[in-house]
Structures are given as C-alpha cells and as structure tokens.
Amino acid sequence: MDLALSKVIELRESGFQFLHLRDEDGQLDRIMAFKQRRGFIDSILFWSETEARAGRLPAVRDSTRAAQAVWIYEGPLVEAVDRLLDLPEPGTRNAPTLMKKTASDLAVVTTLPFKLKLPPGAIA
Predict the structure, then answer these.
(1) Can you give the pLDDT at residue 63?
(2) What are the CA-CA distances from residue 6 to residues 19, 20, 56 (Å)?
(3) Residue 88: partners with Cβ closer than 8 Å, 6 or more residues away
(4) Could you tell me the strand order of the sheet in which 51-58 lies?
(5) 80, 42, 74: which is closest to 58 by C-alpha?
(6) Residue 35 pLDDT level (bands cut at 50, 70, 90)
(7) Per its UniProt entry, which superkingdom is the organism in (predicted)?
(8) Which long-range contacts (CB under 8 A, 24 or more apart) does 117-124 make?
(9) What is the gyration radius of the CA atoms in the chain, in angstroms?
(10) Is the pLDDT assigned to residue 103 strictly greater than 70?
C-alpha cells in the first residue's frame, strides 16, 4: 500500500487533478486523476492497487464518436502511474499520436460519459 500511495502522491506533485467517483449508494467506487498536456489529456482511473487504466486522449474530439486514445495501459496502479508519467511530452519525438483504442471511461474531462455524484470537496 505504501508504494501505491507514494505513486498517487507522485501524480499530484506532477500536476494531476483528482476526481473521487462514487457509486449509486455514495460509496467511493474509483478515483480518476487527469492532466491536460499540449492538446492531450493524460488520465488514470483506478479501483484498487491491482486494477488501473491509464491513457492519453486528444483534448478536443468529435463528440459523436467514442473517445479514442493514442496510448492505453491496463494493469496494477503502480505500473500504470509509472508508464503514464514516463510518456514523452506530446509533440516530442516518440510521443504516441495515432488513435488506437476506445477509451470512453478515461474521457471524463471532455465528455463526462457517466453520472458524477460528487459531494462538496470531492475534487482535490
């Protein structure tokens, strides 16, 4: 747990903002962190230390189509954070640019594809 928590702190120190997403009963279901970078949004959605999904999506997209990512990783939280933070800056050499996979659950900032029930102070 300590390593996973240190990775979440690393995200925050890197400028990511957080949303605490709750289920219908108001219980914490998952946490999302996101950061806009040069026309893209880097985001990570995690349910536990062992279940996370990270991706990079264009910040502007066609709202009639499902969001597509230029990069996605699914796996343990620690590895997802490391891989997300290791991505080259958009627009630089070796930065991913080709649309590959549907990633609507990572598109919270641009589309809010699900209902958010956020109590006051839920956005850190």
Answers:
(1) 66
(2) 18, 18, 22
(3) 94, 95
(4) 17-22, 28-37, 40-48, 51-58, 71-75
(5) 42
(6) very high
(7) Bacteria
(8) 117/22, 117/24, 117/26, 118/19, 118/20, 118/21, 118/22, 119/22, 119/26, 122/19, 122/20, 122/22, 123/17, 123/18, 123/19, 123/20, 124/12, 124/17, 124/18, 124/20
(9) 14
(10) no
Distance CA 71, CA 49 (A): 21
Query: Helix (H, G, I), strand (E, B), or coil: what is residue 81?
Result: helix
* DSSP secondary structure letter of residue 86: H
Separation of alpha carbons 95 and 119, rounded Å: 36
**Is residue 114 pLDDT above 80, yes or no?**
no
How far apart are alpha carbons 99 and 57 in whole angstroms?
Answer: 8
- Residue that the structure tokens 């990511």 belong to: 16
> Of 68, 10, 73, whose CA–CA distance to 40 is shortest?
68
Place of tokens 């990572």: 106
pLDDT band at 37 (very low <50, low <70, confident <90, very high): confident
